[in-house]
Amino acid sequence: MTFTTTKTLADKVRADFPILRQEVNGKTLVYLDNAATSQKPLFVLNTLRDYYEQYNSNVHRGAHTLSAKATDAYEAARDKVAKFINAASRQEIVYTRNASEAINLVAYSWGMNNLQPGDEIILSVMEHHSNIVPWQFVAQKTGAVLKFVELTPEETFDLEQFKQLISDKTKLVSVVHISNALGCINPVQEIASIAHRYGAKFLVDACQSVPHFPVDVQHIDCDWLVASGHKMCAPTGIGFLYGKLDLLESMPPFFGGGEMIAEVYLDHSTYAELPHKFEAGTPAIGEAIALGAAVDYLSSIGMDKIHAYEAELTAYLFQQLEQIPQIRIYGPKPNTQGEGRAALATFTAAEVHPNDLSTLLDQEGVAIRSGHHCTQPLHRYLGLPGTARASLSFYNTREEIDAFIKALKETLDFFAGIFS
Predict the structure, then answer these.
(1) Which residues, 6+ apart, have CB-to-CB distance to 180 below 8 Å?
(2) Is the CATH code 3.40.640.10 the one for domain 45-300?
């Protein structure tokens, strides 16, 4: 997989995604719901199929050839993920079902055992539910206090307010890298530095950043980072937790069962070394191997190239949306090169309900997301019942944006006729 022609990035890769050639409601699919889940290239799908067709076996438990091959591929994928985010050790990568499970792992293993009444946890109002609800559980059980960073007038993370909120009582800061609703890119390296200055740990929800530009956990200096495979061209049911080695070593297991043990007696057990002490039971073997294939695929293109192309698409998308007077876009504006925010636009359109908008766009073959995007607190903060969201990936084209804008204008004209 090499990309050396003068075609746009999407032109080079679209043949790898057969789903993009199908029709929806008699129209060629325009898939603009990438923040919810990405499409999967043939390279990843074939890797998953090859596992089940050629060497399906459980890992770590067998001396036979199939088990050895499956184990090698499963662990090789861990090495690929570690390199992809520049972890210092492969032992710092723990497979999970998804980012939600990864956050829960930290919440229950570290949070429940380290937080006490009066300790503070700082989140932000833009967090995905997966980075709020587990900490609510922890606060209820431990007596810890939740605090929330609000937004600047530009609808970004209010770093100055964060500096006022944090104190010696703060034990954890957990913040999204890129908001899946606002599209703002949060200053995670600076947040990490401030948190550590107060002796607090720092967790990054990187679900919306890892698939779109290079992420370096050592550069950020985060204590934990979580991501979901299905948003980065891998199958569903697989994600990962990164954690600093000494921190993971200090944390007790989250789940008990097979795989995570060293020795089991009737009255006690000892646990496996990292990362296996956090991976109880038969894992999602094929999905983990396919995650490794997704990392190979993204790396073969180059995350810098993916980011640069998506920035071009972002600039074009905003140029087109800003020509529609009924549209109100949330989050910061990109610069003329499309930099400064993620490749998504969350918006409202006058009196039109986002669900109605999404439904009619679907009739034109355009797939966008509507609702609260698992950010109900953010929508309440903004005074909104819901929003519509168009989110891009490196396999999208300007022509697809044109088709979306055309369908959007026609839909708004339709509702204007009803409301008039």
Answers:
(1) 35, 128, 207, 208, 344, 373, 374, 375
(2) yes
pLDDT digits (tens, 9 = 90+) for 344-391: 999 999 889 999 999 999 999 999 999 999 999 999 999 999 999 999
Helix or strand or coil: residue 157? strand
Nearest alpha carbon to residue 255 among 104, 126, 138, 367: 104
Q: What is the pLDDT of residue 419?
A: 64
Q: Of 3-12, 32-41, 294-303, 320-329, which gets the smallest average pLDDT?
A: 3-12
Q: How confident is the model at residue 6 (pLDDT cuts 50, 70, 90)?
A: very low
Tokens of 89: 């050790």
> Are the C-beta atoms of residues 386 and 371 closer than 8 Å to each other?
yes
For 175-187, what is each residue's pLDDT tens digit?
A: 999 999 999 999 9
Write the CB contacts of 389 (distance below 8 Å, at least 6 apart in sequence). 33, 35, 181, 344, 345, 346, 347, 368, 369, 370, 373
CATH number assigned to the domain with residue range 9-32+302-419, chosen from the 4 options 2.60.40.10, 3.30.450.20, 3.90.1150.10, 1.10.3210.10: 3.90.1150.10
Annotation says 374 is catalytic: yes
With a pLDDT cut of 90, the percent of the chain lying above it is 90
Of the listed 207, 222, 233, 374, which one is catalytic? 374
Please report which confidence band the pLDDT of residue 260 belongs to, taking 50, 70 and 90 as the band edges. Answer: confident
Whole-model pTM: value is 0.96
Pairing assessment for the beta strands 239-243 and 93-96 based on DSSP bridges: antiparallel
Number of other residues whose CB lies within 10 A of the CB of residue 336: 9
Q: What is the mean pLDDT of the chain?
A: 95
Residues 6 or more apart in contact with residue 282 via CB below 8 angstroms: 58, 258, 259
Break the chain into its structural domains and give their ranges: 9-32+302-419, 45-300
Residues with Cβ within 8 Å of residue 86, at least 6 apart in sequence: 216, 217, 218, 219
Neighbour count for residue 89 (Cβ, 10 Å): 12
What angle in degrees, to the nearest 10, is found between the helix axes of 303-321 and 398-419? 30
